[in-house]
Amino acid sequence: MAHAxxxxxxxxxxxxxxxPADKNQLIDAAxxxxxxxGVVAALRGIPPEEYTNRDDVxxxxxxxxxxxxxxNASQRARQARAGGRPGQSQHLREVPKxxxxxxxxx
Length: 106
Fold this sequence. Notes:
Region (Disordered): 51-106
Largest sheet: 2 strands, antiparallel
Shape: elongated
Number of domains: 1
Structural class: mainly alpha
Strand content: under 5%
InterPro entries: DUF2795
Protein name: DUF2795 domain-containing protein
Strand order of the largest sheet: 1-2
Number of strands: 2
Helix content: 40-55%
Organism: Streptomyces chilikensis
Order of helices and strands: HEHHEHHH
Radius of gyration: 15 Å
């Protein structure tokens, strides 16, 4: 089973970033710090916007639901239902199939 990336790992990988920073700066900083491919992939999945601090990044990235950043169960459930932040990569969202797609899958 693959290791799920935690929010703590993502935050630790970008500890040397000067904020505000954009998505590409965060990915470059994670690579420079020697972050795992899981962390880099998690950062690739965040919306392409400017982030003001590490907490903004931690809230934007889809991570292991058991992450240790003090997110309570209702916040994790809300994130799971919404599929992350608006603008999040579509491949990370669970989208119900349309009736046409269901018919084509048969």
